[in-house]
Structure formats: C-alpha cells, structure tokens
Amino acid sequence: MLNWLFGKKEQKKIDLSRIGIDIHSHLIPDIDDGVQTIEESVDMIRKMQELGFRTVYTTPHVIWDCYKNTPDTILSGLADVRLACKTAGLTVEVHAAAEYFIDEHFTELLHTPGSLLTLPGNRVLVELPYSTPLMNTSETLFSIIEMGYTPVLAHPERYTYFYADPTIYKTLCGQGCELQVNILSLGSYYGENVQKMADWLLKHELITFLGTDAHRMQHLDMIGKGRNADLIAHYPFQNEKLMNL
Hints:
By secondary structure, the chain is of the alpha/beta class. It has helices spanning 38-51, 71-87, 104-110, 137-146, 168-175, 192-203, 217-224, 230-234, and strands at 21-22, 55-58, 61-62, 93-96, 99-101, 123-127, 150-154, 178-182, 209-211.
C-alpha cells in the first residue's frame, strides 16, 4: 500500500516541518553504533534541519552488554554536539534522552529515581530484542507505567515474533504504551515484512510518533528521497504535541 511513499517517480523534497520533532536518533559520537565523529553529527543535524525538524532528541543506546552509557556519558557528548552545532550556525534544538534495551540493568534503573533520561512528558524510549521475545513483554511495559513513566516502544514494526498476532500492539496501547515507527519503515528500506507491519499499524491507527532512528547520513538521505506524502501530511502523528512540553 505504501510503496508510493518512497517510489522512484516524481520524487519531491519531503517536508517534515509538520512533524517538527524527532525523538529517535543516534547523533552523539563514538558511544554506540551511530555516528563516530563530531563532523558526522553536525552534518546529520544540518540535514535534519533541512528536512524540517526544529527539535531533535538524540537517543543513544543503553544496552548493558555492549553500550554501557550513563546520563554522564550522554550529556557530556550532548554538550560537545551542541557547541559544534552552534559554531556551525545551526538553529535546530538538540536534546538527549536514551534508547533503553529492556534487560536487568534497565529494571535496576527503572527503580532508581533520577536514573533515566526521558523524552518530553516523562516518556521513556525502550526497545525489545529483535529475534527472541521477552517472556512478559506486556507486564514489563506496564511496570514502567506503574513507576510513573510512559513507555514509548521503538520501531515495533521490526519485532518479527509479533507478526503472527500483531493484536499485541492493541493490548499494549490499551495499557498506556505509545508506539514509535521509523519513517523508513513506511517504505521498503527494512524489507517487505517490516513495511507490511508498519502498514498494519497505520491502518489500525496505533502509531503515536514517527522517528528517523538515524544512525548515519544514509538514513537521512533515504528519507530525503521520499515524496512529500499525503500520509505524513495528514496522519495524526503526535510528534508536534511534544514541542512545548
């Protein structure tokens, strides 16, 4: 259904100014699998500004087996990125939260006041394993709500073990979870099955936020090649409501 969004004909410059804020990216150098230099950071943030974003929340991975990021490492890197962007004359606001992999370390952080870097409105961006489901996904996400946060599930369209029964997403949303779909999932970048799941989530109006999940310039270049689609112009994504929180 959505092949036209990233089709090859009649490509136009996409305008994401209605979305306004990106809540998922990896723009702090050399702390996860995102950018590795400050020059890459500035180039990508410049591109995001050109795409129409006015605010960016970059969200480094916190996966204790491989990316042991803390508020100190993230905020220190953010300060460097902000200074470089100011020197480059960029006007987009850059903030930081984190993308938390749900593991034992995350559970410890969840129960330690002040340990989580959050998105506006006390939202916590979380991700699940890609190939093996958690035994208690619904209960784990609900525990985040019980602790006073709103869980935002990153790229739900990429968790293949939910494809057999995607109604799990209706259950999670009904409990108070919000869903963030990657913009490139609306086309064929991640493959046909991911695109079909993104389509299903759109059809059932379960997507709360769009995000770039940009790790490298290639991701933004691919987004930039998309058409200024009616989908993005009219679907009720809620990114903009975060701008003034």
